[in-house]
Known about the structure:
This protein is of the alpha/beta class.
Amino acid sequence: MPREIAIVEDEASIRANYAEALARQGYRVRGYPGRSEALAAFRDALPDLVIIDVGLGDEHEGGFDLCRELRARSTALPIIFLTARDSDLDAVSGLRLGADDYLGKDISLVQLSARIAALFRRLDALRGAAVEEHALERGALWLDPERLELRWQGEPVALTVTEFWMVHALARRPGHVRTRDQLMDEARIVVDDHTITSHIKRIRRKFQAVDPAFDAIGTVHGLGYRWQA
Length: 229
């Protein structure tokens, strides 16, 4: 069955344009003009991926609120912000709320399709890894790719798909430095350095909420990151 993408965008023409383009890629697409309409539609079941604008009608930050509500229901749901608000502050805010990507509306439809496909590949890759290894253990870390569950010192740490994949990629090879380019290559995605850095910072904060002394993700200045053996 084709994957379902929800587009939450208050401008009807823009919503229809994206919906038509993604439908041509073989996705089932549903469009919603605002937060309340989307939440009503998602009451019984979530789509496979959600694209959200930050400003939704009279709600200046309705997209941020929607992202927060969706993350409370699912850590694994892929979420992309697609907005004209391209300030660094807004991008960081979106990523802190748990979005997997934050894109400007000047991005081409080809690039948008590539980002969406990359998120789905990431999910499939994690599930594929589960066939080879049902669970990965590295000291205090326990990670299950099949169920997208992760624990540190026995306590659950809720990660988004992107965050989970990054920890998985680093923890599989403790001590090995992964440059930002290598992280992107392994995930078969293309994002900027700022996005990778924001994700790493958010991951650390989530672990530190469980263990304030957490330092297993090391920064190798000028190179990248590694899981401390």
